[in-house]
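Continuing the series of single-chain predictions for the mutant panel. This is the parent chain; the variants come on the following pages.
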Amino acid sequence: MLTFSSADEAYVELLGAAASSSVRSSPRGLETREIDHLVCRIENPRNRLITNATRRWNIGLAFGELAWHLSGSRDVEGLAAYARVWRRFAVGQEIHGSCYGYRMFSPMSQGRSQWEICRELLVADPDTRRAVIQLYDPDQNYVGSPDVSCAMSVQFNIRDGNLDLTVLMRSNDAYFGFPYDVYLYTVLQELMAVEIGRPIGRYTHLATSFHLYEKDIRKVDGVLSGRRRGYGEDLPISIPGERAKYCDAERHLRLWPDASANFEFSDEFWRHKYLYLLGETDGRSRSYYRDF
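Parent structure:
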């Protein structure tokens, strides 16, 4: 297994490996270079920020996507506000494949969400192997579907007293997708850890196809030689209950950017993400994340 200390380190090493891979495939006519069955681990999941100066990772998109998933939304405009490309994957006004938060946090037939069930399992039996959230929807897997979930499942395990997370993906875009996937899932890992009162453990990422599109090859050399702009460790989560307030604040900024509102956060994790998004709407940048 490939082991890394940070998302930054993993991104550069894996991008280089994908670029030099001799494995070729062209699903839907799109040429790729592929790592077949990638397995890697990030030892410090809080070190999740991509600071490579050449890559210019869009941290605002990461924060916007985080709010979209935490709110359990399928509304495409919640994502399109940060990346218009998402409108290509919508059916009407909804995302039906990659709506991971919707599948995690929406109540199922018995009235509880997959997230709630996993939390109960982990508390009741710390050695459980059943804390699995299914993200793949077979109803969306048909010829011509605009969006099929790339992530299959996530599994939480408590080992050595810490909460580990394993993510299984059928398909993973090395250049664009991987940094946002790692960011989202490691935040969710830490959120669950805080909710059950455990330290955050290791993050393991499995991708059946970890691939680099030929159209992105020219961008790779710059990333491989690029310097880091800052320090890649995120703030810790201390108050998980403020996640709903963060979602409300992001929605307010996105829909009514000129309207006044006063969102106060006790948790620095949520407060600084809100301040970063506020800086994007009012032209200021006043937060821990200003260098990213």
